[in-house]
Amino acid sequence: MTRGKYIRTEKIKKKNSDSKKGKSNGCEGKHHSEKTKNLMSLNHPDVSGDKNPNYGKPRSDEIKLKISKTKIERGLSKGTNNSMYGVHIYGKDSPHWKGGKKLSNIRAATKRRELFGFIPLNNPEIDGWVGHHLDLNYVIFIPEEVHKSIYHSVTKNINMDIINDKVYEWFIEYYLKE
Predict the structure, then answer these.
(1) 151-173 as b/e, with b when 16 or more CB fall inside 10 Å?
(2) pTM value?
């Protein structure tokens, strides 16, 4: 036997195992008093948020890979062990559900609509045509698939020149065809 190392024999392992069988945790059924809970709370260091020694330190890709590999090997992120297992992300079953549309959201949408004018340049001729704001005032009615073909936002001025070019092309083609 090497000095400083204790090697358990199979006999000792079996003896230890048998001695634990049928017994529950020594603290089972017992509760800490309020005084003890307060003392434990006072003696426990607060390492939440910016008091945590790793707060603000980014993990390297190597460490992230190591953690991921360990979780996969141990099966910590599979099936019922996955923290998101059975959690509904959307709708009424979501833990973030707040009961549907809020009045404040409806008011914000109404306020947003008040920013826009409504001067139509044509009439919707076919069902499925939607109004597209060329700018904050002028509206042109176009097929919904043309309108949805390019993501755009009038208020944020995102892709407005691209969608407006496409709308002008469609408008000329549609009305000169007749």
Answers:
(1) ebeeeeeeebeebbebbeebbee
(2) 0.39
